[in-house]
From TrEMBL:
Gene3D superfamilies: 3.40.50.970. PANTHER family: 2-OXOISOVALERATE DEHYDROGENASE SUBUNIT ALPHA, MITOCHONDRIAL (PTHR43380:SF1). Residues 92-385 form the Dehydrogenase E1 component domain. Belongs to the BCKDHA family. This is 2-oxoisovalerate dehydrogenase subunit alpha. Pfam families: E1_dh, OxoDH_E1alpha_N. Keywords: Oxidoreductase, Thiamine pyrophosphate. Residues 1-10, 324-343 have a biased composition (Basic and acidic residues). CDD domains: TPP_E1_PDC_ADC_BCADC. Its cofactor is thiamine diphosphate. The gene is bkdA1. SUPFAM superfamilies: Thiamin diphosphate-binding fold (THDP-binding) (SSF52518).
Amino acid sequence: MDARMNDKLSQKNSRPLSLRVPEPSGRPGDAPDFTHLSMDPAGAVERPDVATTPYEMRDHAFRLIRVLDDEGQAVGPWNPRLDPETLRRGLKAMILTRAFDDRMHRAHRQGKTSFYMKCTGEEAIAVAQGMLLSREDMGFPTYRQQGLLIARGYPLVEMMNQIYSNAADPIKGRQLPIMYSAKDYGFFTISGNLGTQVPQAVGWAMASAYKGDDKIAISWIGDGATAEGDFHNALTFASVYRAPVILNIVNNQWAISSFQGIAGGLETTFASKAIGYGLPALRVDGNDFLAVWAATQWAEERARSNQGATVIELFTYRGAPHSTSDDPSRYRPGDEHEKWPLGDPLDRLRQHLTVIGEWDDERHATALREAVEQVRAAGKESEAIGTLGQSRPSVKTMFEEVYATEDWRLIEQRREVGV
């Protein structure tokens, strides 16, 4: 029998290959199913010393740090023991963030802006971290960290002006709506390209350390962006140079139409990606304000003591559409958000404050009303300047803040436009 015949027989007896395409646990019309999730009880995960080596604490990449239990009590070693006033400020900032989101989403439906993205269900992440870290530390956010600005008191009118791209837009029409930039508030200019925040944050942190400064950096990306090369390149630099940076992965379960398994979430946790780079990893209940605060505080202490970066996976759920261009009813169960086992971050902090006697229904109703009124007043002020297309920054601004010194080409272009 010749070699060609052997090859043919071998091919007939070989097993055909198959390509595996990950599928979510539920599609439209299905009942939400979260039985596949592995979650520790509140208070069950130990809190290591910040000097613990990444190897010694590698199990934390697979556990889930939780502080608030089902009754609203703060339990376990990660309890940051925040005073009631800090907790109230956090709850009010989350309420205000949600009220702002609701109004701007309606503004889009009314044709006042071209685009908007809500952070419903994820408010505890940006608010807690924005309150904890200093404005002088630099944040490299995505488009779902509006709570960072709101928690730090950034004017709502300025945020709306940017969304409407009107004549008072602080970025002068140079960015898409919701892509804010506020250096004085520790908020680096948002990029629409996925994953860019991570190498930018690592580079900024390396520069801070190189100069002998005392400022750290923090970044946020979604679960899908961990599949970008930027993420892995940044982790290499963060590990090798011990950059003083906190690298957040907001695992909110869904991209615009694909679930987190497409980015590798079924194979392992996103936090565990840090292990191969020799970085410490924490996996945290992102709907637990106290847990987010405690984990960020741990990572901050590590960074400020020259022990390097920490990767934090914040386990949460995107309750709203990905953006105003998205319809999640086309790819996931309609009531999946309501059945999310880790609940709603506002409800959980409200429950905790009530349990400890520092909140009640009357105060909550007042906070809701005041948030709506504050957002409405800002809306009236901003819309008086103009919504999309009603007013816009002067054309001359596109020639400004581009080059330190104008060359003849820019001068000629100005002359041609008449500005």
